[in-house]
Amino acid sequence: MRKFLLLLSLATTGLLLNAQQALKDVRQQRLNSERSVVVQQNQASSVAPAHQNRTGSRAAGSVLNSQRIGSAGNLLSIINAECNQLDVNNLLDAVTFIHRNDFTNQPGTNVAQYRFDISKDRGANWTVNIGPITNDPLINNIDINGRFPQGLIYNPAGNTNVDSGYLIYAGTWHNSPPSGGSGSWMGHMKGSGNLSGDTSTFSVYYPPANGGDPVNVAAGFTQGAPGVFWNVNTDYTGTFATGGTAFTEGIIVEKGVWNSVDDSVEWSTQTIPTTFTTIDNDGTLQSIATSFNIAFDPTGQYGWIACLGDITPLADSVYQPVFWKSTDFGATWSAPIQIDLETIAGIMPSLNATLPNGDPASLNPSTAFQADLTVDVYGYPHLLTTIGSGEDYATQLAGHGVWDITYDANALPGCQWKGIRLGNVQTFRGTRTNDNPAFTDDNRPLVSRSPDGHKIFFFWSETDFTFVQSSDNDIPNLFGRAIDVVDSKITPEYNFTEGDSLWGGETSNTVGSGVFGGAIYPMVSPTCLVNGNIFNVPLVMTEIDYLNFVQGQLGSSEQPAAFWYISNIDFPASDFSDPLDQLAPTITLNGPDTIAILVNTVYTEQGAAAFDCSDGIINPTILNSPDTSVIGIYEVLYIATDSAGNSDTVTRIVIVGDIPVANFNWSFPANACRAQFLDQSINLPEAWLWTFGDNSGSSQRNPAHTYLLGNGSYNVCLVASNRFGSSPKVCKQVTISGCVNTGIEDIDFSKQISVFPNPTNGKVFVNLEGDNLPDFTVSVYNVLGETILATSNYKAGTTRVEMDLSGVSSGLYLVKIQSKFGSTIKHLTVSHK
User: Quick check: pTM over 0.90?
Assistant: First the structure.
């Protein structure tokens, strides 16, 4: 599997990590003690009973209609969210789901084959584990190993009999035996068969792809015009061996056309050569390209290919959406269109300024690593992904949002690419299995649409951050929302699984999670079922390692997995009740955001400009102006309001000033040699230069100073400055009498020292503040007391020490600073990306 970087924000010390583990232990105990639901394992090959026959899936505490359907020999049917395994046909009342073979139910078979499940009554009843539809002795799990199947329903023109319809399937095979090795994804595994299950109609076709060179996992299987099928793959150099390069050198577009003469699909390919940015990831060169998908509008004329990656490198090194467009039924494709997320209205203001540990976020917008794609009735794409701050092609866990990145050719210039924020995401990656390495899943964005392309349905998974207090998406709920692109309406955001006894993720509103520990590896159909005024989105969930299932424990990805169909993910037409939010205008200042002028001079305001994607150019209103006759700091406020009443504001700071006039006072406690000085300068000073009469000084505004020479009279002087100039020096006699200089008691040495940045990935600074700084030494140790950085000596008055720890391993270290006033130890976390 391709390895992607995730920038995890470390908390301050191991104490917090222990606390998080304690929370997980508590959740584990709840799972083991508070749930009494018994999951009835149904391994029959016919109809699986419904878990509950209730509606109301959007209300917390409600129950989903869950039916056990087919099963597979391991998880390598479902973990790739870009593959489409679930499909519907409204005319035939059919729902199908394709998956790998479960050899535990069919002795003598192997996992490399494909089987399918079908409902002929819109998901109410199921026949499962039909096949294998790929019944060929060469598909032996050694020479040819089929994984990640995808399936679509094809209904020939004029047909109304479900048994005369076809399942068209497309997957990818590799040539690596179960014992492992350096195999590669090598070819297509495609074919078809009657929905009746008649084995005489089953066919399989498994030629090498890409002229015999390796490919990646094919994804996005979709139907364009009637009888035309599309898949997308990549020209890929990666193998199953670790440590090799993994370049994506081009996009392979696979097109299949139904041949009514011999009832089969004839496939052809075209390649779009594409160069992606590459990075060195732990010694392995990898292309910045992931989550490839393809989709067409309901007519099949307008097609879009999309991925997350980087073709035109930006300075901040982030993932961006990249699109290719076809307007001629897929015959030709445009050059790549890389979307700079900073140009999408609303994204920049949505980014969190800080990480959960308080460190500043990069504020460079980046997608995460998963996305899903559909195309609406107008031929416009909808790419669902999560967006937040990132850098160095890694994500920062700073409160991502779920966004629909879409397009509108009729919008004003600069507004045609736009984003619709659907929800917040505060947890990111979750562990799904107990393997080493474990299988994981991110927020798993999924998209479906109505058959006419009017309504788009979005889904994603997330764990309750307020409950887990971490970024781990380990016990997720499934969230959803939908938009009507014709009426510009949107539904509320729904938590479909909260409180469900099987699939509920544990939250602060519920006690314990569902039996299966959350919404695990969900999958939706590319199109939905339409039942009158209700839009029903077919959904499949995954039960991992069903033969060895223990409630509350992770199972193995290598053991058989069971699939469950959820039949009541419903969006009534009445749910589309809220207008799509219109973003506020964007307003910017002309000229600098801070201006300084001399008192009693003329001030000319440079103005501001505003633009709105609905109204175009807007003339902002200025609400106040500075009084140039009075020294002070003024805020000049501009506001821009569009025709819908949405507003944005911007503020310019105007400093009306003059050269400072210096003045100060002081105080000190009895029997102390430490004086506290108070600046009383006027005319807005911005810098201070003190001399204390004992060959020492300070640049602080209100410094405290210890006179080590003890009692006496000292000539203290101050010069105050700002952008207009510096004041004449002002000096005063400060007399110290009756003080007792106790040395170390006069200086809290530890409070004078800070270490930053912390955490660090290499360079770190030791900063010393205060006056009369002594000679000191700095050394670094690990938690075992071993010396990591030898002791270095620094002269009195040194205020900053720079160290380079880029060569040490990630972990917790101790920085010791020693002087005649004592010693202090600062904890430092080193975290390499």
Answer: no
